[in-house]
Amino acid sequence: MKFVDEFREPGVIGKASEEIRRLADPKRHYRFMEVCGGHTHAIYRFGLKDLLPSNIELVHGPGCPVCVLPMGRIDDGLSMAQDPNVIFTAFGDMMRVPGANGSPLEHKARGMDVRIIYSPSDALKLAQKNPDKHVMFFAIGFETTAPSTALTLIRAKELGLSNFSVFSNHVTIIPAIRAILDSPDMRIDAFIGPGHVSTVIGCRPYEWIAKNEGKPIVVSGFEPVDVLQSIVMLLQQLQAGEAKVENQYKRVVPWEGSRPALRAMAEVFELRPYFEWRGMGFISQSALSIRDSYAQWDAEKRFQVPGVRVTDPKAAQCGEVLKGVLKPVQCKLFGKECTPERPVGALMVSSEGSCAAYFNYEHRKAAVLTSIGAAV
């Protein structure tokens, strides 16, 4: 298949759904975790859950970088931008994420120079155009976005640009999966592997999941046929008693990943000993800090960072949802105090957050059906 519409063709989707029903053992309950927030969004957007038999449960993983960022890191980044000579830059999905003292957009309304950018290079250009200001880029994302940050820092070093820095909040996917598997209250039969991250790191890093944990994993694309085909491949492995890594997303993901991207990351970044994940606590070797050779462009070394730690609102159950222990609708605040218009937790802020995806598709669909039933 060559075009997107082919991956949304109803006939192919129907055949995939039939194959899933044929392969699923009716005496068994399956729990498949989609690691990536993009998959969660696709599952709800296209109604894929409704095409699966009731004994296949999809569990939402921690694959949304905005969602796993603790509130304290947001406050740390904003504290650096209190200086009127600093321009705070970040991607759009960060702008409404609340810290203890408000989101970046709320700080902008109070007078802070906060700007949305679409790539790290935009922040670099902003620094070149504003030599009398210091431009700080709030970097966030898994290995998917880390290479672009790394290349931007390499370019800043080449230019000798002194009024630019990066506040690194990049995290890595493998330690998060390991933490989930080590969780005593979690039972996962198999994984729908992240497609975007895998374009960078490839498929080989997941082999330990199959070899050591005995869990099948299929790296998947994001269209309906992609996700359903990946579930077929997982069921085929389980039926055969196998556990291996497979690549459904071969049209995009190379098995060995992107060597240029990995080289750029290795030059600029090193692993942090520990990093806090929202709802999951501190996970070792799970985030990227900037190497000393790039210290001049490391915001954490250039500014005094308070190292704020903020407890999530007690009623918000983001941690349980992130780990797949609860469904979004089971959170006490979901759809009441916490909505996309007035989010309490990061899972509702980000477009890839499982709560936002559930609210925008499943919750609203149920509300429409209820109103139709009442009218009839």
Protein model, in words:
The strands form four sheets. Strands 2-1-7-8-9 form a five-stranded parallel sheet. It folds into two domains: 1-315, HypD, alpha/beta domain 2 (Rossmann fold), CATH 3.40.50.11740; 318-367, no CATH class. The chain has helices at residues 10-23, 37-45, 65-68, 71-80, 104-109, 120-129, 146-159, 173-182, 195-201, 207-213, 224-240, 259-268, 299-302, 318-322, 346-349, 354-375; strands at 30-36, 56-63, 86-90, 114-116, 134-141, 164-170, 190-193, 217-219, 245-247, 269-271, 274-277, 281-284, 288-290. Helix 7 packs across helix 12 (259-268). It is of the alpha/beta class and 376 residues long. Residues 367-376 have low confidence and may be disordered.
Q: What is the H level of CATH, i.e. the homologous superfamily of the largest domain?
A: HypD, alpha/beta domain 2
Low-confidence stretches: 367-376
Q: Describe the strand arrangement of the main beta sheet, using strand numbers.
A: 2-1-7-8-9
Computed over alpha carbons, the radius of gyration is: 21 Å
Whole-number count of domains? 2
Question: Which fold name fills CATH's third level, the topology of the largest domain?
Answer: Rossmann fold
